[in-house]
Specification:
Largest sheet: 9 strands, mixed
Strand order of the largest sheet: 18-17-19-20-16-21-22-23-24
Distance between the termini: 83 Å
Structural class: alpha/beta
Helix content: 25-40%
CATH class of the largest domain: Alpha Beta
Number of strands: 24
Shape: elongated
Strand content: 15-25%
CATH superfamily of the largest domain: P-loop containing nucleotide triphosphate hydrolases
Length: 546
């Protein structure tokens, strides 16, 4: 849109000649700095009564070569870029004309009015970057900025040594503008990109860098208190700009790092603190549990998954100061509490006949040891038995971590979550759930212990006969293995003639992203009197395939 009639009276401030009329009937007053949507003359006439003409020729522009004092730009630089200006009666620059060319011929001017309002004169179609025709089309360096004044400012601060050009439509249109002038930019050895120091400019710079030949683009980062090159020029920080220019970083796509720049970060990285497992054999292979990891515990039906999780829950409560959350979807909260207290008491308190042998005072003692005193407000349990809406379960999981500040959460078990999905495709449901669990771990840094089932195996021997477990036995989806940091499988021959072997659970590490150490880790003997698991080390530690 262009102004088509100048020096019109303003109906708002009574100026006799400060209003300029647009071709769409709107107007702008340079006296009162107001924009008028539907211009009408003070006498009551409307825009249709005003004789207007559209300027089609760029040769009809007014203006002279002047120093752009309002932007801190010298006369020499304005002449270099062929930028003309118009002043008001007080001699103040109120309008800039930025030339745009096709094959070195000016075909359009971008007009900058006071208040940073832009219009076009002439035909801008097919024009290149601002300043493109000013410089030869090859060289060692070229700088690309977001605005015309920034181009002139950068050129001036760089001592007029290197070409500087600007996109013509700001950050939003930068990728399109660069694509149209890509052949020109590619003729330079290095393109330094210096867009505005804001979110839009930073993102646009990355998009533009990706359009250039890898290794050609550098991104200039301005000091935090400056938005663009012109800000630095007006502040007299030319040397600071030069320093930033020479320090511009080679653009690399996300995830690709220049390691030479990461020395301090490497040495000063945060150590990943671990909590040891209750069993030494696991610690030797895994070096403990770590927050920010997803550990999956798997095994066949009746092989001791619940017993192992109870031991882990009690261990985390009594051996750390971290809050612990439990989502047990196959039992109510009372059964969960009973199971953990049974570990504390070394007795199966979840059995009424056993619990009746203990006095109320003894039971209170065990309860207080685990849930009161120093452990008050540390243990949180999901109270709903059975499957619920999947989004509700995930909402409660997130609340346990964020709202209750739980550093560790046990989810028992994965396939109850699957049953809460409306999607009938088990594999797809597991993929979705594992992705969401992984995301929560990454976002919150909590340690997540997930219980999962195994699929039935073909053949005469199943998991109840103690066959060795592999990752391929995980039920439903490869995503369980892929998205878990650690997978521990339980093996036990329930049908063994030897009572000790029938009550011994073998713990096999199937995956350890942290150590890479897999294989048989340890053996846990179940005591039917106490309900406890104790680590046992057979004389022959050689792995035996049962």
């Amino acid at each position: 849109m262009a102004f088509v009639k100048y020096h019109q009276p303003c109906p708002l401030c009574s100026s006799s000649d400060a209003c300029s009329l647009n071709e769409d009937g709107s107007a702008y007053c340079f006296s009162c700095d107001k924009r008028i949507t539907n211009y009408q003359q003070p006498a009551g006439g409307n825009v249709e009564n005003i004789q207007t003409h559209r300027i089609n020729s760029v040769n009809e522009i007014e203006g002279s070569f002047l120093a752009l004092n309002d932007r801190g730009i010298s006369l020499a630089t304005a002449k270099k870029y062929n930028v003309k200006c118009i002043t008001n009666k007080e001699g103040e620059v109120i309008r800039h004309f930025y030339p745009y060319c096709v094959a070195a011929e000016v075909t359009a001017y971008k007009v900058r009015e006071e208040g940073k309002h832009f219009t076009w004169r002439g035909n801008s179609q097919g024009t290149g970057l601002f300043g493109q025709s000013t410089f030869r089309d090859s060289g060692k360096f070229i700088t690309l900025v977001e605005g015309e004044c920034d181009a002139m400012s950068a050129y001036e601060m760089l001592g007029s040594k290197w070409p500087v050009v600007s996109v013509k439509s700001g950050a939003a249109g930068a990728p399109r503008d660069v694509k149209n002038s890509l052949e020109f930019l590619e003729k330079f050895d290095c393109v330094v990109i210096n867009f505005d120091n804001d979110k839009a400019g930073i993102e646009a710079a990355k998009k533009v860098a990706r359009l250039l030949t890898p290794g050609k683009a550098k991104i200039l980062a301005l000091p935090d208190d400056f938005k663009d090159a012109n800000d630095m020029l007006k502040a007299g920080r030319g040397q600071g700009y030069v320093d930033s220019w020479w320090s511009a970083k080679l653009y690399t796509p996300s995830g690709v790092l220049n390691i030479s720049e990461k020395k301090n970060e490497f040495h000063n990285r945060e150590k990943r603190e671990s909590v040891p497992y209750p069993w030494e054999g696991l610690n030797k292979k895994l070096h403990g549990l770590r927050r920010g990891e997803l550990m999956t515990l798997t095994g066949g039906t009746g092989l001791g998954k619940s017993s192992v999780t109870r031991e882990l829950e009690h261990w985390l409560i009594t051996n750390t100061k971290d809050n612990v959350g439990i989502i047990a979807l196959e039992e109510d909260w009372v059964r969960t509490v009973d199971g953990i207290l049974s570990i504390e008491a070394n007795a199966r308190l979840y059995i009424d006949q056993v619990r009746d042998k203990y006095s109320e005072e003894q039971l209170n003692h065990y309860f207080d040891n685990v849930y009161s005193g120093e452990n008050k407000d540390r243990v949180w349990v999901h109270s709903h038995f059975g499957s619920t809406d999947i989004d509700e379960i995930f909402s409660k999981l997130r609340f346990l971590i964020i709202g209750c500040e739980c550093k560790w959460v046990v989810v028992d078990h994965l396939h109850m979550l699957v049953s809460a999905m409306v999607d009938g495709d088990e594999r797809r449901s597991i993929d979705n759930i594992m992705t969401r669990l992984r995301r929560i771990v990454e976002e919150t840094g909590a340690g997540l212990i997930l219980v999962s089932h195994l699929r039935r195996v073909e053949g005469n021997r199943g998991h109840e006969n103690g066959i060795s477990v592999s990752l391929s036995h995980l039920r439903g989806s490869q995503s369980i293995a892929q998205l878990s940091d650690c997978v521990i499988a339980l093996e036990r021959d329930q049908q063994a003639d030897d009572p000790q072997e029938a009550n011994t659970t073998h713990m096999r590490v199937l995956k350890s992203r942290y150590t890479g150490d897999v294989g048989m880790a340890t053996h846990l003997l179940y005591d039917r009197e106490t309900g406890r698991l104790s680590e046992t080390f057979p004389q022959d530690e050689t792995e035996i395939e049962l």
